[in-house]
């Protein structure tokens, strides 16, 4: 059994006088791995980054095993070896912090900074203090929710309440920013609050529509990216990390569903009201405007840097257009597959081009446009509402969509490798 330590501890495998160098490099790599894991980066990407940085500093990474909950890394040069085992945990980082991490990775990949400088930079990036900005969070989440709603909601009434419910979720999110204990129950709390308001509105006849109106307001918590990354890792034979992410994603979906059911009961409505009708957008142009509004919401909500917005918009609109073309030509599964292929290729290209938009920053907004997480939540909701035949068929479609997206990510990564520009990793 591998020993776990809460804080990094270096076990030198050689009594060489030069062990200080691997000690500092290991500490830097450990802190970097923790930061990337907190950001939700796939373990294959983390392992690749750590190995390239080791090589840049003249060391060989003999063993790198990065999992969502712990890291094992062993490095060596001609004179010494060092091993580290440490805990880490997944989470969410604002995208401006992720961008700064990738800038640090580019510098470390060229050995432009010392490990000590790298450690200080990571601490500065992760521990940055943000002031509460309720207006920014509420407006950002309202735009985020409205933009997603414009992809499929057919009425102005539905769009208005979609944005209003998003503003409520944004208020809860802003209030919980520096409250760690509240963060643990945030999905349930948000789902309960938003669903209670929604179902009371339905009961009073103020809101006209199905559960589809409420889904965009919970989309921030719906783990579409987590589930897709889990499938991607499983497809790449990273069984432990992939299975862990899938379990995490399913648990979050169930927590959200529990919050919705409690909200329904508080409103005094039967489970028959948990339905999500398939709808079409308000006008033909509505989805395209919706993607732009969604991007503005992401800019405010996820703190995307100004200089990264062009790359984010390029990947977002290209992925959406390619997905729509695939849906039209061969159906939804092909649309999800080809959309993820192009998203991966374009994100990799932009990261290695003069724009230098970090790959992860550019593709995260596009994951919400591919919407497998929302589909999964709606399918589970239909199952609770006892629409068994339709919900089971939808769940099968969701699983196949995840397979299509993860396959697209793998194929896109293979195709994108020859697109390398310059010397950046």
Fold and architecture overview:
By secondary structure, this protein is mainly alpha-helical. It folds into two domains: 10-126, 2-Layer Sandwich (Pantoate--beta-alanine Ligase, Chain: A,domain 2); 134-419, no CATH class. Helices cover 65% and strands 6% of the residues. The chain has 17 helices and four strands. The protein has a four-stranded antiparallel β-sheet, with helices on one face. Helix 11 crosses helix 16 and helix 13 (309-330) runs parallel beside helix 15 (359-370). The two termini are 34 Å apart. Belongs to the ThrE exporter (TC 2.A.79) family. It is a multi-pass membrane protein.
What topology does this entry show?
Layout: E1 10-12, H1 20-39, H2 43-56, E2 60-66, E3 70-76, E4 81-87, H3 95-109, H4 115-126, H5 134-149, H6 156-175, H7 180-184, H8 186-203, H9 215-218, H10 224-235, H11 239-267, H12 286-301, H13 309-330, H14 332-351, H15 359-370, H16 372-384, H17 388-416
Antiparallel strand pairs: 1-4, 2-3, 3-4
Helix pairs in contact: 1-2, 1-4, 3-4, 5-6, 5-12, 6-8, 8-11, 10-11, 10-17, 11-16, 12-13, 13-14, 13-15, 14-15, 14-17, 16-17
Domain Threonine/serine exporter-like N-terminal: 28-266
InterPro entries: ThrE-like_N (IPR010619), ThrE/Ser_Exporter (IPR051361), ThrE_2 (IPR024528)
Subcellular location: Membrane
């Amino acid at each position: 059994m591998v020993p776990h330590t809460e804080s990094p501890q270096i076990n030198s495998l050689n009594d060489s006088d030069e062990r200080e160098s691997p000690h500092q490099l290991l500490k830097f790599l450990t802190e970097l791995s923790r930061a990337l894991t907190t950001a939700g980066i796939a373990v294959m990407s983390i392992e690749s980054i750590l190995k390239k940085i080791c090589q840049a500093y003249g060391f060989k990474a003999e063993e790198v095993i990065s999992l969502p909950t712990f890291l094992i890394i062993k490095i060596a040069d001609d004179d010494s070896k060092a091993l580290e085992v440490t805990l880490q945990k997944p989470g969410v980082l604002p995208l401006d912090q992720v961008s700064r991490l990738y800038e640090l990775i580019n510098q470390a990949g060229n050995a432009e900074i010392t490990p000590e400088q790298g450690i200080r930079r990571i601490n500065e990036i992760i521990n940055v203090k943000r002031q509460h900005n309720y207006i920014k969070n509420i407006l950002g989440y309202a735009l985020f929710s409205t933009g997603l709603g414009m992809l499929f909601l057919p009425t102005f009434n539905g769009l208005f309440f979609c944005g209003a419910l998003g503003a409520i979720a944004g208020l809860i999110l802003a209030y919980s920013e520096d409250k760690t204990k509240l963060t643990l129950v945030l999905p349930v709390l948000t789902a309960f609050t938003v669903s209670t308001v929604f179902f009371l509105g339905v009961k009073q006849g103020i809101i006209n529509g199905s559960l589809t109106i409420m889904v965009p307001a919970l989309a921030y918590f719906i783990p579409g990216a987590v589930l897709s990354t889990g499938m991607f890792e499983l497809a790449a034979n990273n069984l432990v990390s992939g299975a862990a992410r899938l379990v995490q994603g399913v648990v979050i979906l169930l927590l959200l569903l529990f919050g919705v059911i409690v909200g329904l009961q508080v409103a005094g409505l039967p489970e028959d009201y948990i339905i999500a009708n398939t709808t079409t957008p308000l006008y033909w142009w509505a989805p395209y405007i919706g993607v732009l509004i969604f991007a503005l919401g992401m800019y405010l909500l996820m703190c995307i840097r100004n200089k990264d917005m062009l790359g984010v918009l390029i990947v977002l609109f290209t992925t959406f257009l390619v997905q729509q073309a695939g849906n039209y030509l061969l159906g939804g599964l092909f649309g999800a597959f080809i959309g993820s292929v192009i998203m991966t290729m374009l994100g990799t290209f932009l990261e290695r081009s003069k724009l230098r938009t970090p790959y992860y920053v550019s593709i995260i907004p596009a994951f919400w446009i591919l919407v497998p997480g929302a589909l999964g939540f709606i399918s589970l909701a239909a199952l609770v509402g006892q629409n068994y035949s339709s919900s089971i068929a939808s769940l099968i479609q969701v699983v196949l969509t995840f397979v299509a997206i993860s396959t697209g990510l793998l194929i896109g990564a293979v195709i994108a490798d020859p697109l390398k520009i310059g010397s950046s990793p």
